[in-house]
Write a structure and sequence with these properties.
Chain A: One of its GO terms (molecular function) is metal ion binding. Chain A: InterPro entries: NIR_SIR_4Fe-4S, NiRdtase/SiRdtase_haem-b_fer, Nit/Sulf_reduc_fer-like_dom_sf, NO2/SO3_Rdtase_4Fe4S_dom, NO2/SO3_Rdtase_4Fe4S_sf. The complex is a heterodimer of chains A (about 550) and B (about 100). Chain A has four domains: about 5-110, Sulfite Reductase Hemoprotein, domain 2 (Alpha-Beta Complex); about 140-290, Sulfite Reductase Hemoprotein, domain 1 (2-Layer Sandwich), CATH 3.30.413.10; about 300-400, Sulfite Reductase Hemoprotein, domain 2 (Alpha-Beta Complex); about 410-544, Sulfite Reductase Hemoprotein, domain 1 (2-Layer Sandwich). Helix content of chain A is about 35%, strand content about 15%. Chain A has 17 helices and 20 strands. Chain A has helices spanning about 5-25, 35-40, 65-75, 100-110, 145-155, 225-240, 250-260, 260-275, 285-290, 310-320, 350-360, 385-395, 425-435, 435-445, 500-520, 525-535, 535-544, and strands spanning about 45, 50-55, 60-65, 80-85, 90-95, 125-130, 170, 185-190, 195-205, 215-220, 320-325, 330-335, 345, 365-370, 375-380, 410, 450, 465-470, 475-480, 495. In chain A, strands 1-2-5-4-13 form a five-stranded antiparallel sheet. In chain A, strands 3-14-15-12-11 form a five-stranded antiparallel sheet. Chain A has a five-stranded mixed sheet with strand order 6-7-8-9-10. In chain A, strand 18 (about 465-470) and strand 19 (about 475-480) form a beta hairpin. The longest helix of chain A is centred in the N-terminal third of the chain and has 22 residues, at about 5-25. Chain A is globular, with a radius of gyration of 23 Å. Chain B has helices at about 35-45, 70-75, 95, and strands at about 1-5, 15, 20-25, 50-60, 65. In chain B, strands 3-2-1-4-5 form a five-stranded antiparallel sheet. Classes of the chains: A alpha+beta (about 550), B alpha+beta (about 100).
Amino acid sequence: MYQYDQYDQAMVDARVEEFRGQVARRMAGEITEDQFKPLRLKNGLYLQLHAYMLRVAIPYGTLNGRQMRLLGDIADKYDRGYGHFTTRQNIQYNWIKLEDAPQILADLATVEMHAIQTSGNCIRNISSDHFAGAAADELVDPRPYAELLRQWSSFHPEFDYLPRKFKIAVIASDTDRAAMRLHDIGIQIVTNDAGEIGARFFVGGGMGRTPMIAPVIREFVPALQMVSYAEACLRVYNRYGRRDNKYKARIKILVHEIGADEYRRQVEEEFAHILTLGLEPPQAEFERIAAFFADPGLESGLADGYDRSDPDFAVWADQNTAPHKQAGYKAVVISLKPAGGIPGDATADQIRLMADLAEAYSLDELRVTHTQNIVLPHVKQSDLYALWQKLDEAGLATANLDLIGDIIACPGLDYCSLANARSIPLAQKISARFASPERQRTLGELKLKISGCINACGHHHAGHIGILGVDKKGTENYQLLLGGSEASDTSLGTITGPGFSEDGIVDAIETATEVYISQRAEGERFIDTYRRIGMAPFKEAIYG
Amino acid sequence: MKILTGNDLGSGDVVWWDGKGWSRDVNDAVDVGDHADAILAAEEAARRVNASYAIAATRTEAGVRPAHIKDRIRALGPTVRLDLSLRPGDPEAAKQVI
């Protein structure tokens, strides 16, 4: 894992003290809320429905046991005993007091964490593949590239006041586990015909009220020129992005309005100029960063295979583990989606337990997934059973990865001041309706995503089944979408028709699954059947 | 009736104008009539409240009921964590909010 050098630590420590002073001035009345609001947002502190909410950055979703344990301790000490893992691989605390916020940031700084650039119109936390460094199918570990981008984008003065917020994802395999093409910039690390490592740039994706899939803007940029190319992409956006209209200010609108070809032309022109300045990071600097992500201590010579005699364990192991690049290991996904639970929430005790388990079983590494689960990336197969037993004791062994119970849901109207409808109660009802593990496995891979408003923090556009909560004359109403995907086969869902009440949408989803079961061909997932037979059979069954 | 709400500057707690100060209980909210803007300006300036605004509400036998669901949830707390709400012992509280 990357470790701060003296510059990183000095910057974060200085920022904490700066914010401590800003909070003191606000509490003393020396600055107004209008003056203070942009300052607190720069430090990840929002004001939500019930209290202040603090969003803590987890760069590319990677953290160690010590960091995870502190996240649990913060939940106990400053919040109400739990945290909420988000679709941007971050964690949010919902009950923060303003006067505590500086000390929380000081505590975070002791473990090389912060909340900088988790809000505002700047480059946000760089996200990545949650199996990075472990995935059997990755070309290379994408995190050194993500870290390079993190260092470039942190406190970048030119991009501190963009037309709108800006999100970047980096992956390094053909399997997209980061919704890469639904980001402002999606980067896939690839090789060219000469076998050299570089970056493929997708620009102009996003969800929200105008969902778009990012087109390829450049097939290959040499690895060390990646930052300069990103700078060119941002510079064109910063120059021409729509600052006059918040709803048209994301880069996806610019790319769409002027067209990918014209956007590419301008970026290439800017890129050519930047290259003349010689600003690319030296190879030695990249190698310094990459060294932090070297082999964490994986043993060689281990055999694949483990005792599967406990049937409950075998079901969990089949569902919640992924192939590892090293023989004898698995990447383990800890589901934060128990039947009837709140997606992404974990208690302080659960967070600390996951920290302990990472240290004991996963070479001191954890990952937060954009699907609001936790990964232990490096678990010996011989340790899987012992790990499962400990997870099961803590209510963390739900075997539903990528099944209908593995729901993404935004905080919705229960917490969020932007929401129009509640998301979590729907997730609870749906996961309870489909609680039977056998039924979930019969349905197979089925990604269900719920947003409480058009901002789409719950990724509803990209769900095989998506739900969008709206306000219909003061009453919560839910639109149903089918056919979305945020994987390598990225697609956007289509609204089925008129919306539903809270109970009605659960029934409609059940009907959709019945159509799938009756129509599916051998080996088809829900999304495959939908793509083959289209909307009509689903619509007919749902609306009669 | 028109009532005033906001969040306490320091704690962030949801608060309601009770005629003299800010209460955590929506049932203490009073009708401010045409005085909303003046009260809010004075209270914001005095740093007793943050992000304050006026809303429509009705007074029923059960208490003060904000017109919009968002403010009814603010008055209660998250419907999915009643243990953290202002009515932790009332399992029907969420239904009454909706």
